[in-house]
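Exam prep: given the inputs below (a chain plus molybdenum atom), describe the expected output before reading on.
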Amino acid sequence: MPDESKLTRTKQKWAEEARFITGRQSRPEEDRLPPGQHLVKNWPVLDIGLEPVIDLPNWRLDIRGLVDAPTSLKWEGFLALPQTEKLSDIHCVTSWTRYDNTWKGLSTQELAARVGLSPEARFAILTCEDGYTTNLALSDFLVEDAILAHSWEGEPLTAEHGGPVRLVVPHLYFWKSPKWLRRIEFTAEDKPGFWEVRGYHNRGDPWLEERYS
Ligand SMILES: Nc1nc2c(c(=O)[nH]1)N[C@H]1C(S)=C(S)[C@@H](COP(=O)(O)O)O[C@H]1N2
Ligand SMILES: [Mo]
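Solution:
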């Protein structure tokens, strides 16, 4: 792991570049539901149907590719990193939206600062324990709200929802939020994932209805 001064330098560089500033306006409350979506109170389970069994002693998260410090995190090491809480809405491409989900875990910005991203890194390629993959532009992976979550509503994330750890990227459709996360690779080239090669949009912004390619 890089030392604190590395983290400080990285964060200072972000400030100079105004990194992560989108220029987007926050939305008024009445404009909270994206086009074509309907609200649900429950939390549906959706996946390719290969729910893995992962026990915590064997859990690993590999950080690879264009980083200064390739890392394989174990459970205790992951929990020892600074923990944050995020409140966000879920928008699934199958048209349900669920408001106000509280997530706890490691923010992607914190992770990136810890491993030290190379300037050539442009994409985050995510691989899961069930073989599922998805791809994100670095600018989407590193939004303020994105979190490697281990808890939802104050309870450990259940296996069916991707526990021990899933990524949550709330400003994109939920297929961009991989469950049972196993590996993050930072790359210069994009690599479309499971749904992205099966007719789904490469980015998946619900406000632009980027559902299909
Ligand atoms: N590992 C993995 N992650 C995944 C999927 C999957 O099949 N495997 N499905 C995606 C899709 S299409 C959706 S809509 C959400 C559903 O998450 P949920 O079951 O917690 O609602 O997970 C996403 N992440
Ligand atoms: Mo989905």
